[in-house]
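User: Hi! I have a protein structure encoded as tokens and I'd like to know what sequence might fold into it. I'm fairly new to this, so please keep things simple.
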């Protein structure tokens, strides 16, 4: 579902650490309903003991109910992301579609993306991130074509503790190079960013520039410039202006374009908040007849007694039919992040985070745990070694209903297609056998 779940591993590592520290006394999203123009999707989430998502299952509403569509599964190693596998529901079973695998070699973090064809994993791209003195030093992106071929590289340069510049090289038929230089204010806030492009003679030529302006330590405006190669000077391109309330929350963003000799307003975002200082509405307006005319709004409806939330995008008076649902990009809080998803309506269901596994007892030397139990249809097996483990699902009368295969072995047991009831799950490895009753409701 979310592209925000494919963050680069270093950023993901920081989020993992924060998640581990805040795993207690928190609530997490367990279900999300998302409506588009003609479809209703349901997303279910399962978490590990550090409140990190380990399984996301996407279902689509049909005439007969919700049916599986895609699934993502994450594995971790000492809080670092180790892999992500995406599967598609085909022929009444999950078929591996793609994977992301992470490895840490000395100070280099390697992320490899592969796709599956006829059960065979085929590498497609690779990102290598090198660190020097705990700072990002170089990022190299490769594509696979009978071997790894350089596609793009970014090198980072620092002055004292701040990022001074970066150089990006795109390895096309004719390689292109861009240099970005950063300038800072005395309080370490960013003052400006200038981009230069290297010409055929190897000289850096100005390309574009952005400058930030502050008021009360908040950004008051951002101006963007382009380099005019004829007049050899910076010319206006666009600007953004920001306004805040007494709580320093944003209440307005206005976008302007430079029309050659004057500024023209093009778009306005306005934000409203409820009595609890939570965002309740985002209004989008365009300039018409010398005034701002609301074209559409995103409404955030917060539950009174929980973190549950409904978000809806609707037309304004100057859009379509006022109040009708509108397909647009919606930003919303998901656990402790702000993410963006294209939809008409989004419903988030939160639940208290509960640690799902526990130390092994004397009677059971296996550290394998199965949760959540009961479940609506998807169960997660913790500490599942796909290289040595397998599982079998049976009815209480002994009839085998499902089992893992070596091609598609995973840590999830999906019984969305089975009736509600009690089943027996048997997990087998070289060292132990674990049997457990699981309940679908």
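Assistant: Happy to help. Inverse folding works backwards from shape to sequence: for each of the 441 positions I chose a residue that suits the local structure. Here it is:
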């Amino acid at each position: 579902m979310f592209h925000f779940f494919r963050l680069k591993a270093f950023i993901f590592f920081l989020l993992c650490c924060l998640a581990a520290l805040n795993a207690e006394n928190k609530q997490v999203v367990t279900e999300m309903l998302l409506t588009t123009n003609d479809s209703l999707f349901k997303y279910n989430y399962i978490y590990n003991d550090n409140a990190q998502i380990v399984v996301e299952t996407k279902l689509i509403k049909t005439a007969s109910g919700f049916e599986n569509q895609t699934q993502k599964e994450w594995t971790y190693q000492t809080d670092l992301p180790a892999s992500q596998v995406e599967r598609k529901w085909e022929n009444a079973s999950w078929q591996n579609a793609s994977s992301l695998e992470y490895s840490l070699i000395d100070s280099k973090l390697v992320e490899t993306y592969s796709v599956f064809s006829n059960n065979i994993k085929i590498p497609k791209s690779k990102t290598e991130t090198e660190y020097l003195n705990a700072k990002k030093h170089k990022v190299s992106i490769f594509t696979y074509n009978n071997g790894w071929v350089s596609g793009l590289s970014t090198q980072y340069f620092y002055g004292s503790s701040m990022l001074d510049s970066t150089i990006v090289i795109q390895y096309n038929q004719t390689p292109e190079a861009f240099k970005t230089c950063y300038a800072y204010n005395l309080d370490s806030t960013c003052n400006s960013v200038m981009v230069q492009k290297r010409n055929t003679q190897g000289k850096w030529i100005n390309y574009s520039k952005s400058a930030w302006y502050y008021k009360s330590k908040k950004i008051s405006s951002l101006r963007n410039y382009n380099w005019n190669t004829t007049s050899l000077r910076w010319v206006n391109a666009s600007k953004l202006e920001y306004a805040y309330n007494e709580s320093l929350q944003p209440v307005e963003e206005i976008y302007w374009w430079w029309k050659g000799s004057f500024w023209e307003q093009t778009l306005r975002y306005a934000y409203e908040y409820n009595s609890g200082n939570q965002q309740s509405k985002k209004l989008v307006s365009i300039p018409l007849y010398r005034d701002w005319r609301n074209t559409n709004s995103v409404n955030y409806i917060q539950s009174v007694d929980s973190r549950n939330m409904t978000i809806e995008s609707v037309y304004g008076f100057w859009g379509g039919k006022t109040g009708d649902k509108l397909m647009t990009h919606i930003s919303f809080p998901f656990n402790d992040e702000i993410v963006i998803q294209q939809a008409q309506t989004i419903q988030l269901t939160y639940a208290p985070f509960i640690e799902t596994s526990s130390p092994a007892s004397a009677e059971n030397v296996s550290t394998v745990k199965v949760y959540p139990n009961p479940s609506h249809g998807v169960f997660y097996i913790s500490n599942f070694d796909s290289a040595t483990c397998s599982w079998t699902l049976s009815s209480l009368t002994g009839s085998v209903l499902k089992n893992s295969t070596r091609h598609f072995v995973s840590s999830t047991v999906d019984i969305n297609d089975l009736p509600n009831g009690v089943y027996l799950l048997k997990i087998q490895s070289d060292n132990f056998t674990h049997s457990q009753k699981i309940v679908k409701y």
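A useful reference point when you look it over: The longest strand covers residues 65-77. Feel free to ask if any position seems puzzling.
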